[in-house]
Amino acid sequence: MKHQTMELPFGKKQTQQNSPKIIIRIIGILILLTIISLYYPLLRYPSFLLFNTYSLTSSHAYDVREHSLSVNKSGEKCDIFTGEWVSNPEAPYYTNTTCSMIHDEHNCMKFGRPDKEFMKWKWKPDGCDLPVFNATQFMEVVRGKYLAFLGDSVGRNQMQSLICLLSGMEYPVEVWQNEAGTSKRWQYVNYNFTVANFWSPYFVKTELTYPNSPNPFSLYNLYLDEIDYSWTTQIDEFDYVIISGGHWFFRPEMYYENNQLIGCHYCKENVTHLDMYYGYRKAFRTAFKAINSVENYRGITFLRTFSPSHFENGNWNEGGDCVRKKPFASNEIRLEGNNLELYMTQLEEFKTAEKEGMERGLKFRLLDTTQATLMRPDGHPSRYGHFVDIDTNEYNDCLHWCMPGPIDTWNDFLLEMLKIENGRSRGS
């Protein structure tokens, strides 16, 4: 199958006579890189970003992940988000028969996925261990607290994974939903713990350009400087808010600022073209500013970073599919193209928001799932989110995640970060 690769930055072909000069230059470059690595130790960025086409400038030399550093047995700090997938025969820790919260589109076992190995991996950080999810520990950390997932269906996918991981202890009771049924709250009565999903894939004020259009991928108006009040009016009582998003920005969109149409992405109208990164950046900027402006909000905001899809041999609407059966190793794939641009945009806006939040005493934390997610092309539903013997004309799903599956590891990360925060609070 086709797989995207990255061209090496070496210009035109060299003649054989130039070989000694090339070798000398390469040796010089390696010496320079060694010196840089000694005095500027990777700028605290994920290792998978250091060998691609993105140029890390001084403006990116900012440790956005310092608060998620775990401590290994030697007392050294360890980045839990950089590592490899390793075999875990004990997984999974729930099934589609023990958890009723799995939506059909994620229920790969129900719809006949024949292989099971995609469920039997765990994340192993370089230099330390990441414990698998412990429901008892999680409930003790969040007892009496409120946790919200804000964003699109991938964020909801993670929330459902969390509920399934907790299903052996208690099932929550639904206590609220909005009129459309897209946003909901559940309560774990015995722990006085509330978990919510706030549906807002663009974060900002949004409306269909043509409300009566039957096309599910119709054009949207995005008011990039106006917030979606459906979630900002809800979060003031929450202790933790996990914001995530990205895939909706690939859709056709009309961009507005100051109530004026300024451009569009992927539209046929005679309007100035703006790429999706413009709308993506502005939407995250507006969302972060809104969080920092909610008067009574005192919670911790987690940015769950962009989750790459894994369509191969075509786009999602051109027959693309994801049929790989095992994870990539870290040296087999690179973050590049749209995935890299979206990820770096998030980090840049996160950096600004974190600085602004510090002025109010608000905490921002990076739940950096991108590398681990990039390495799991085997974890998507593909055609197993519906009955495969029925001609439904549905596309293969290489964006969402089978449950159980790799998405459960996102909650391993979350619990570890909450434990770090809890330990920091006790020590202060």
What report would you give on this structure?
- The chain is α/β, with parallel strands linked by helices and 428 residues long.
- It folds into 2 domains: 14-44; 45-427, no CATH class.
- Helices cover 26% and strands 18% of the residues.
- The protein has 8 helices and 15 strands.
- Strand 12 (253-257) and strand 13 (260-265) form a beta hairpin.
- Helix 5 packs parallel to helix 6.
- The longest helix is centred in the C-terminal third of the chain and has 22 residues, at 337-358.
What can be said about this structure in brief?
Belongs to the PC-esterase family. TBL subfamily. With 428 residues, this protein is of the alpha/beta class.
Fold blueprint:
Elements: H1 19-39, E1 69-71, E2 77-79, E3 83-87, E4 121-125, H2 135-142, E5 146-151, H3 153-165, E6 173-177, E7 184-188, E8 193-199, E9 204-208, E10 220-227, H4 229-232, E11 240-243, E12 253-257, E13 260-265, H5 276-293, E14 300-304, H6 337-358, E15 363-367, H7 370-374, H8 408-427
Parallel strand pairs: 5-8, 5-11, 10-12, 11-14, 14-15
Antiparallel strand pairs: 1-2, 3-4, 6-7, 7-8, 9-10, 12-13
Write a concise keyword list for the protein shown above.
single chain, 428 residues, alpha/beta, 2 domains, seven-stranded mixed β-sheet, four-stranded mixed β-sheet, 15 strands, 26% helix, globular, disordered N terminus, O-acetyltransferase activity, TBL_N
Helix content: 25-40%
Euclidean distance between termini CA atoms: 53 Å
State the total count of DSSP E strands: 15
* Main sheet characteristics: 7 strands, mixed
**For the CA atoms, what is the radius of gyration?**
22 Å
Strand percentage lies at 15-25%
Mean pLDDT: 86
Order of secondary-structure elements = HEEEEHEHEEEEEHEEEHEHEHH
Widest sheet: strand order?
Answer: 6-7-8-5-11-14-15
Domain module tally:
2
Envelope shape: globular
Residue ranges: pLDDT <50 for 5 or more in a row? Answer: 1-19, 33-45, 47-62
Count up the helices.
8
Content-based structural category:
alpha/beta
Transmembrane segments: 22-42
Organism: Kingdonia uniflora
Membrane topology: Single-pass membrane protein
Family: Belongs to the PC-esterase family. TBL subfamily.
